[in-house]
């Protein structure tokens, strides 16, 4: 995996500008913050994010992959301010589940998610090296 960082660019915080990889591609559907029984245990944004990330990791395991193989994440948020205010707690939850691996990432605020109680939905692409 090669991190793509153009010379002279400020290094981004919490994500990479680009990544180049070769291998088996794994696509994970949008994961929300519910448990394996499709039940929300909380309405807290950070805790739903933690659960969504844990769900991503569980699906990756089914492909023989782990968080270190993630090359792209897209986060769909209901509330941009909630995301920004979560700051340190959100970062801690991310590192607890994903580690210090920072793939390419986009985060967008949306009007609604399909699951009414969901505060966030996270979609992932991973590549397992040949």
**Helical percentage:** 25-40%
Question: What is the string of helix and strand elements?
Answer: EEEHEHEE
Number of helices: 2
Give the strand content.
Answer: 25-35%
Radius of gyration, rounded? 15 Å
Please tell me the overall pLDDT.
Answer: 95
Folded structure, characterized:
The chain is 28% helix and 29% strand. By secondary structure, it is an alpha+beta fold. The strands form two sheets. It has a four-stranded mixed sheet. Strand 4, helix 2 (80-98) and strand 5 (104-109) form a beta-alpha-beta unit. The protein is globular. The mean pLDDT is 95.
Could you give the topology of this structure?
Layout: E1 2-4, E2 18-20, E3 24-32, H1 45-62, E4 70-77, H2 80-98, E5 104-109, E6 120-128
Parallel strand pairs: 4-5
Antiparallel strand pairs: 1-2, 3-6, 4-6
Helix pairs in contact: 1-2
């Amino acid at each position: 995996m090669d991190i793509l960082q153009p010379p002279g660019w400020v290094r981004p915080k919490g994500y990479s500008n680009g990544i180049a990889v070769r291998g088996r591609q794994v696509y994970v559907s949008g994961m929300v913050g519910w448990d394996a029984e499709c039940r929300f245990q909380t309405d807290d944004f950070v805790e739903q994010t933690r659960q969504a990330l844990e769900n991503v990791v569980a699906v990756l395991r089914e492909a023989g992959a782990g968080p270190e193989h993630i090359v792209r994440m897209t986060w769909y948020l209901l509330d941009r301010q909630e995301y920004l205010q979560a700051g340190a707690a959100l970062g801690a939850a991310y590192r607890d589940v994903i580690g210090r691996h920072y793939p390419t990432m986009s985060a967008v605020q949306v009007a609604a998610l399909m699951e009414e109680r969901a505060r966030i939905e996270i979609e992932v692409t991973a590549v397992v090296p040949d």
